[in-house]
Amino acid sequence: MMKFIEKHFTLVMASVVSAALASFVLAILLSLGLLNNYTSYTDSVSVIISKGGSGSAIYLGNNYYITNEHVVSKGELTLKSKDKLSAATVVKADKDLDLAIVKTIFTPRDNPVRFCLIKASIGEDVVVVGNPYSLEDTVTKGIISYPYRMKTSWKTPHHQTDAMINPGNSGGAMFRVSTGCVIGMPTFLLKGLGGSINFAIPAETIKKFIKEANIDV
């Protein structure tokens, strides 16, 4: 009888240890951005409205959102998500980087994003989530055409992508398909007769800006 109890106790303990180890490994993989923890890319991106029009914003947590500075530079702001509205105020903005953090009175979203820790590479799959022409939760797909492209007139490098970006996508999120982490923020496009070339601010620049803002997220 004792041998039976000892055998089953050993099996139970082994299962408990295995489950704990699996949870620990899963937490590490998620923190490194090596697993996709999102059922929907659209859960973390909302519409932000100003007198100058509308754009997109990424939820950081604790009622904070990050977007492009040019989206929020026209005065009074309202954040819209899933038909809920909240007033928003600018906490920090940088015109040169084209980044801004806003805070809402309440938050309609409850899924803060994770920013990628691994650098972007050419050819990897991405999806862009935003609100082009006020069409909420629009998702387009493409690749990183050229990561960290730098021009003399830019203050920071940008990821070049063939994922479609239109007016209203600014301030939204560009996700790495393989992991679900945010790899960039769609910001502007260069338009020509053959279409457009699209650019996004890299996650590294965004994370540094958030850290310097010293907000509780």
Summarize, please:
The protein has 217 residues and is α+β, with helices and mostly antiparallel strands. Helix content is 21%, strand content 40%.
How would you describe the overall organization of this protein?
It is a single chain. The protein is of the alpha+beta class and 217 residues long. It folds into two domains: 41-111, Thrombin, subunit H (Beta Barrel), CATH 2.40.10.10; 125-208, Thrombin, subunit H (Beta Barrel). The chain has three helices and twelve strands. It has helices spanning 2-31, 69-72, 203-213; strands at 45-50, 53-61, 64-67, 77-81, 84-94, 99-104, 125-130, 138-149, 158-161, 173-176, 182-192, 195-202. It has a six-stranded antiparallel barrel with strand order 1-2-3-6-5-4. Strands 7-8-9-12-11-10 form a six-stranded antiparallel barrel. β11 and β12 (195-202) form a beta hairpin. It is globular. The termini are far apart.
